[in-house]
Amino acid sequence: MFSALHPHVMYTIYGLFSVLVLASLAVWFLKRKNPESDYKELELRVRSWWMMIAVFSLAMIISRKVSIVFFALISFLAFKEYLTMIPTRRADHRVLLWAYLAIPIQYLWVAIEWYGMFIIFIPVYVFLFLPFRMILIGETDGFVKAVGTLHWGMM
Question: What digits encode the pLDDT tens for the residues 118-128?
Answer without folding.
Answer: 999 999 999 99
